[in-house]
């Protein structure tokens, strides 16, 4: 159903680990593109998914980060620890750099696992479809909407498991975000697109960056579903007042958090009272700054909780 | 030594901590001088001695534009540095608030501890403001003197000694001012020690 796409940095992996049970219960399937060389963190996240009886897709040929040259250690990790675990799928990322031969040989190399193909700019849909033949229908196909449009998807039409991934997050400098904006309606419309499921890049976005550098403005992103607007999802950006220097991220976090709490406390607030929101409230009460990474984790968790709640009630 | 030390929205090229705090702004023959006055004035509030090292073509313009307490050295075409005028050592010219703004919270605490000044115990989101208030009241000489002492510890390059020693001379300067992840340090050494025939196979 929901396939959140994580570029597996430390915070993302911990988010998966901490929310493994929630995602398993909701039938959510995280897709993990490992980007940092922390096989331990990845293994712990996958162990938690297996423990929770959940599912996850691990991309064995990442495009970004430490593994972009060579994903052999990922292939080994899957072979050694997760080969007999039905919930862990090998994902193959098909970018424009991947040739048809590479794509086919990668599929064959991982035929022991349940396979997921991530169609992300690959150019030869027709050739791949022909090469896969009947096997095509046993594979889960995820399409990055921006890179694999309807004509591309047509070549995989017969496959029963198709997922559409759309990036709802607009990447900008923190200070340039509006207070609130449209995020996505795919959770409410993916069946109209003839899809079995949908995905996004949570509140992080598709654009990959190695490291942030000092943040001049601190932002907390919170998504909400608006039942007065056909259940479309929107996102609040709570931005610190001070944005001119890189100093005092802790104080700026509190400025942003104050705005969040005011919004959440409004009568008829549309912000769902999730566990993540409770943690934000706790930090606010204690005026405590847990670090920007932790705040990002909470925002991702909130997003997952909001969607889990939506599908529980719809 | 600290490289790329941030002061306001400027980055000082080199800072040397040796009894006093000395900062060097380097302007090669091809660099523009448009930011120089702003940079120098920012550094004067944080370091007791300020030097500009510049190509010969810049020296007259610099002598006219920077204050008299700023030292000037000339970088000659023969790669020699010679002094045009010495910098005055003026810790009393610095400003405690500017010093606070340029260092890390942890360093500000160490400085206050060293001079024996107490600061309030507040939640961490309010710590910066609370520390800033206390720190700003320090006499600038005291703030500067203790900053030099503390930065020598917190920004020490000694942990890099082993890596630097194992690198060829041509890479040593780069190793001192390019942050390398700890896990990448042995890789760098291995790569440098790989015979060229073998390294060519990587391509």
Task: Give an overview of the whole structure.
The complex is a heterodimer of chains A (314) and B (203). By secondary structure, chain A is α/β, with parallel strands linked by helices. Chain A folds into two domains: 2-165, Aldolase class I (TIM Barrel, Alpha-Beta Barrel), CATH 3.20.20.70; 219-312, no CATH class. Chain A is 37% helix and 19% strand. In chain A, helix 3 links the parallel strand 2 (31-34) and strand 3 (56-59). Chain A is globular. The two termini of chain A are 13 Å apart. Chain B has three domains: 2-91, no CATH class; 95-154, no CATH class; 158-190, no CATH class. Chain B has a six-stranded mixed β-sheet with strand order 1-2-3-4-5-6. In chain B, strand 4 (49-55), helix 2 and strand 5 form a beta-alpha-beta unit. The longest helix of chain B has 15 residues, at 140-154. Chain B is flat, with a radius of gyration of 20 Å. The model of chain B has no long low-confidence stretch (mean pLDDT 92).
Provide a compact summary of the structure.
The complex is a heterodimer of chains A (314) and B (203). Chain A has 314 residues and is α/β, with parallel strands linked by helices.
Task: Report the β-strand fraction of chain A as a percent range.
Answer: 15-25%
Widest sheet: strand ordering of chain B: 1-2-3-4-5-6
Full CATH superfamily name of the largest domain in chain A: Aldolase class I
What's the story with the biggest beta sheet of chain B? 6 strands, mixed
Along the chain, the helix and strand elements of chain A come as: EHHEHEHEHEHEHEEHEEEHHH
Beta-strand segment tally of chain A: 11
Instruction: Give the domain tally of chain B.
Output: 3
Number of strands of chain B: 6
What's the helical proportion of residues of chain B? 40-55%
Tell me the overall shape of chain B.
flat
Structural class of chain A: alpha/beta
Compute the CA-based radius of gyration of chain A. Answer: 20 Å
CATH architecture of the largest domain in chain A: Alpha-Beta Barrel
């Amino acid at each position: 159903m929901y396939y959140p796409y994580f570029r597996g940095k430390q915070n993302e992996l911990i988010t998966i680990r901490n929310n493994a049970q929630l995602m398993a219960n909701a039938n959510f399937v995280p897709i993990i593109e490992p980007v940092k060389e922390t096989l331990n963190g990845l293994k712990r996240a996958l162990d938690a998914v297996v423990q929770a009886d959940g599912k996850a897709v691990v991309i064995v040929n990442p495009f970004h980060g430490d593994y972009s040259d060579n994903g052999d250690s990922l292939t080994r990790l899957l072979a050694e620890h997760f080969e007999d675990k039905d919930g862990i799928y090998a994902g193959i990322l098909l970018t424009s750099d991947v040739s048809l031969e590479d794509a086919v040989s990668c599929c064959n190399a991982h035929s022991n696992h349940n396979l997921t193909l991530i169609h992300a700019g690959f150019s030869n849909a027709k050739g791949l479809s022909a090469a896969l033949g009947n096997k095509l229908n046993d594979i889960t196909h995820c399409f990055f909407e921006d890179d694999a449009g309807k004509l591309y998807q047509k070549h995989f039409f017969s496959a029963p498991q198709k997922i559409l991934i759309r990036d709802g997050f607009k990447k900008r400098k923190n200070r340039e975000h509006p207070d609130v904006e449209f995020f996505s309606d795919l959770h409410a419309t993916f069946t109209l697109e003839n899809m079995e499921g949908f995905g996004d890049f949570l509140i992080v976005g598709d654009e990959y960056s190695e490291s942030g550098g000092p943040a001049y403005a601190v932002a907390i992103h919170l998504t909400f579903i608006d039942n007065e607007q056909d259940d479309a999802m929107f996102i609040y950006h709570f931005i610190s007042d001070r944005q001119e220097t890189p100093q005092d991220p802790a104080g700026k976090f509190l400025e942003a958090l104050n705005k969040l709490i005011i919004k959440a406390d409004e009568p008829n607030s549309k912000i769902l009272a999730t566990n993540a929101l409770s943690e934000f409230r706790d930090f606010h009460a204690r005026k405590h700054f847990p670090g920007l990474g932790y705040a990002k984790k909470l925002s991702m968790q909130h997003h997952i909780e909001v969607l889990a709640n939506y599908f529980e009630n719809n | 030594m600290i490289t790329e030390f941030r002061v306001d929205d400027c980055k000082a090229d080199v800072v040397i901590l040796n009894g006093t705090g000395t900062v060097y702004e380097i302007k090669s023959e091809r660099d523009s001088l448009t930011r120089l006055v702003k940079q120098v004035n920012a550094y004067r509030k944080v370091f007791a001695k300020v030097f500009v090292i510049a190509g010969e073509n810049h020296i007259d313009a610099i002598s006219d534009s920077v204050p008299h307490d700023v030292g000037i050295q000339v970088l000659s075409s023969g790669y020699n540095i010679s002094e045009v005028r010495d910098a005055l050592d003026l810790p009393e010219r610095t400003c405690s608030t500017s010093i606070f703004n340029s260092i890390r919270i942890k360093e500000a605490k160490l400085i206050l501890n060293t001079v024996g000044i107490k600061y309030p115990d507040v939640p961490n989101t309010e710590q910066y403001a609370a520390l800033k208030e206390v720190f700003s009241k320090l006499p600038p000489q005291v703030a500067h003197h203790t900053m030099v002492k503390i930065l020598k510890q917190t920004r020490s390059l000694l942990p890099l000694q082993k890596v630097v020693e194992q690198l060829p001379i041509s890479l040593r300067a780069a190793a001192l001012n390019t942050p390398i992840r700890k896990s990448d340090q042995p890789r760098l050494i291995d790569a440098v020690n790989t015979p060229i025939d073998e390294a060519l196979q990587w391509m």
